């Protein structure tokens, strides 16, 4: 099964973070399970990303169904939401009833925090510090991938609450279940 874990950074901040269509792509970072590599793509070379996503069996992200995939769809000639995905934030909200920040879950589950913030990445991008943005984005991809692997192995994630660290049971049995029928891909790569 080819799993692509992804995260994006934007080059601007919209007036309403609830509408990803206001934001512009700066960079996409991915981990490809097929070759166990972390790579990034800017707008200049994003066409190289499409065949990778088209051949994915599953796309993994954190808030990706609401944020990353809709922004990528602005540039993609097909429909990325047709590709099977696991959005860890969405899975957490299904069980907990509210969203949790990636930093909260990473610290409680993996014992480490993120290396920055999305707002900081926008500033770095504006200042021309592309390598800082790339490193930050790929670290978020690494954290998301490790959380995915953790929950698949342990059936739970951890988060910090007012009362300390809590464990959240998450059902993953359908995540990598083979699908029957036709391909979910939208372009003929």
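^ structure tokens above, recovered residues below v
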């Amino acid at each position: 099964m080819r799993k692509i874990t992804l995260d994006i950074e934007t080059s601007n901040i919209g007036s309403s973070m609830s509408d990803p269509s206001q934001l512009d792509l700066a960079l996409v970072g991915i981990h490809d399970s097929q070759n166990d590599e972390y790579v990034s793509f800017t707008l200049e070379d994003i066409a190289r990303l499409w065949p990778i996503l088209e051949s994915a069996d599953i796309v993994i992200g954190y808030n990706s169904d609401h944020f990353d995939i809709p922004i990528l769809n602005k540039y993609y000639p097909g429909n990325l939401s047709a590709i099977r995905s696991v959005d860890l934030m969405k899975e957490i909200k299904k069980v907990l009833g509210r969203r949790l920040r990636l930093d909260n879950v990473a610290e409680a589950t993996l014992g480490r925090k993120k290396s920055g913030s999305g707002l900081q990445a926008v500033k770095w991008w504006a200042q021309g510090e592309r390598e800082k943005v790339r490193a930050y984005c790929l670290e978020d991809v690494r954290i998301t991938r490790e959380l995915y692997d953790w929950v698949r192995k342990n059936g739970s994630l951890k988060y910090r609450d007012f009362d300390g660290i809590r464990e959240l049971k998450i059902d993953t049995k359908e995540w990598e279940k083979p699908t029957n029928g036709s391909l979910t891909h939208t372009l003929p790569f």
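The longest helix spans residues 130-154.
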